[in-house]
Design a protein that fits this description.
The chain contains twelve helices and 19 strands. By secondary structure, the chain is of the alpha/beta class. It folds into two domains: about 350 residues, Alkaline Phosphatase, subunit A (3-Layer(aba) Sandwich); about 90 residues, Arylsulfatase, C-terminal domain (2-Layer Sandwich), CATH 3.30.1120.10. The strands form four sheets. The protein has a ten-stranded mixed β-sheet with strand order 7-6-5-4-8-1-11-13-2-14, sandwiched between helices. A hairpin with a 7-residue loop joins β18 and β19. α6 runs parallel beside α8. The chain is globular, with a radius of gyration of 24 Å. It starts with a helix and ends in a 6-residue tail after the last helix.
């Protein structure tokens, strides 16, 4: 009898136990070894110069500095647009925002666009959005809210926000969350990450800060760091929103910068809180954490920008932004890369990493996975920039979405026409006319940048810069490098044609 029992035990160990083990769910560590967690962080109006690692003389950004020193520092990273909403659309879609009518702030995305969140969700990711959305209203009935684009949970705002932000939980009426807004977003995102780990899922979390967009405010301890800025620094008057009235006010820039820098420091600290959390949970090794800005420094914050232009311009000061990425399991030694990259590259890069397919429609971004593997030192194709606009400002064009569904609900300090909320718009534009090619536009290859302002004829202003030897865009080479300029203009025009075809809804047919 004893021998029979021993034999049965042996058979159990050999045949049954392995089957039982194989039926158990994988641990989080095993799952994440195949599929990394991904957290995308986006600063609002955070310019290239406003980090310690890029040489700012006064700002304290120790966390971003550490990420730049230990991970991948992208020294020539660009926002797809010099203003916020279009850049956000490029992150979500991998496409230039003019393709779907998100021309500038106040223009929504289109419901037919395919989102990186939906594609990550299809790959088994838990998906969530926190903070500024600005691609349409976040209310539940909106066809362009985060849920409509694949985010299973969201705590979001139609636009930007300050201290004690009013945020919508999954489309509900906004609720006040008391505290410093950057830290609030991280705190709430951690709850979602906890839940994802409990469900043994990798997570894809998008955190779009309201900082450091004006109007500015900060915690006393953060403001104290900048109370002794030099008297000759920011010694001019600037215009911005008043926290008290919501209208424009003129203030001494030095005082404004104290508050702006406090917001950047708080945002930086919140990123540190997130990294600490990931470390505590054993997830930091295999979490891809990617931070960059959505456009260049705005006029009231422009004190140390080393480039031409600022927010709103297609010169470097409007579109070149800080960008750092860390993924310790993949990037185990510091790298600095000056290959041109852009926010439209996010979708192709993540899909390359997780094994997903790109949508079958024109995609403007490329995968940066070779950059993460230190194999990319030149971009294989140029980047197009274009501050487009609807024909005649939209006059005479049909609304793409019912205007009632485009009305926002989350209030902000800055008033517009006396209203504290924001409404959105998008238009059908079903044909292509010559005037549609106008507006500030640029093409950036590995050496040169062609910049064109105005219409499409001989009266358009054309500039050509050697962007590596002249990053401040001070020397116009248009007369000495005519063949280069002409070839680039042809490429730019062909790209614009593709963009306009998308705008006519050809990609949705």
């Amino acid at each position: 009898m004893k021998k029979i029992t021993q034999n049965l035990s042996y058979l159990f160990l050999i045949f049954v136990l392995p089957i039982l083990i194989s039926c158990q769910p994988e641990s989080q560590e095993q799952t994440n070894s195949d599929m990394p967690n991904v957290v995308l962080l986006l600063g609002d109006d955070h310019g290239w110069d406003e980090t310690g690692y890029n040489g700012h003389p006064y700002l304290h950004t120790p966390v971003l500095d550490e990420m730049a020193a230990t991970g991948l520092r992208m020294d020539r990273f660009y926002s797809a647009s010099p203003v916020c909403s279009p850049t956000r659309g490029s992150i979500i879609t991998g496409r230039h925002p003019n393709r779907y009518g998100t021309f500038t702030p106040g223009y929504s995305i289109r419901p037919e666009e395919i989102s990186i969140a939906s594609l990550m969700k299809n790959r088994g990711y838990a998906t969530a959005h926190y903070g500024k959305w600005h691609l349409g209203p976040v209310k539940s009935e909106s066809p362009t809210n985060p849920a409509a684009f694949g985010f299973e949970e969201y705590l979001s705002h139609d636009n930007f926000f300050e201290m004690d932000p009013p945020l919508s939980v999954n489309g509900a009426e906004p609720v006040i969350f008391e505290g410093e807004s950057s830290e609030i977003l991280i705190r709430e995102a951690r709850k979602f990450m906890d839940k994802a780990m409990e469900e043994d899922k990798p997570f894809f979390v998008v955190i779009w800060y309201g900082s450091p967009h004006e109007p500015y405010s900060g915690l006393p301890e953060d403001l104290a760091l900048y109370e002794d800025l030099p008297e000759d620094f920011g010694d001019r008057m600037v215009s911005l929103t008043s926290n008290e009235t919501g209208s424009r006010v003129e203030r001494l820039q030095r005082e404004v910068l104290q508050e702006r820098f406090a917001e950047i420091t708080a945002m930086d600290r919140s990123i540190g809180q997130l990294r600490d959390y990931l470390e505590e949970k054993g997830q930091r090794e295999n979490t891809l954490l990617w931070y960059f800005g959505d456009n260049g420094t705005p006029q009231e914050g422009n004190a140390t920008v080393p480039f031409r232009g600022q927010k709103g311009n297609i010169y470097e000061g409007g579109i070149r932004v800080p960008a750092v990425l860390e993924w310790p399991a993949k990037i185990n030694q510091p790298m600095i890369n000056d290959t041109h990259a852009v926010s439209s590259d996010v979708m192709p890069t993540l899909l390359d990493i997780v094994g997903g397919d790109l949508p079958e429609r024109p995609i403007d971004g490329i995968s940066l996975l070779p950059m993460l593997e230190n194999r990319m030192h030149q971009r294989p194709e140029p980047i197009g920039f274009w501050n487009g606009r609807p024909r005649n400002g939209g006059e005479g064009l049909e609304d793409y979405i019912d205007p009632e569904l485009q009305k926002g609900t989350t209030p902000l300090v800055k008033l517009m026409n006396g209203i504290a909320t924001r409404n959105f718009r998008n238009y059908h534009q079903r044909d292509i006319q010559e005037e549609d090619f106008s507006g500030p536009r640029a093409l950036l290859d590995n050496q040169y940048k062609l910049v064109i302002h105005g219409g499409t004829g001989e009266d358009a202003e054309r500039e050509l810069f050697d962007i590596h030897s002249d990053p401040a865009e001070e020397k116009n080479l248009i007369d000495s490098q005519t063949e280069v300029a002409e070839n680039m203009e042809e490429q730019l025009r062909a790209w614009q044609q593709s963009v306009l075809e998308s705008l006519t809804e050809a990609d949705y047919q």
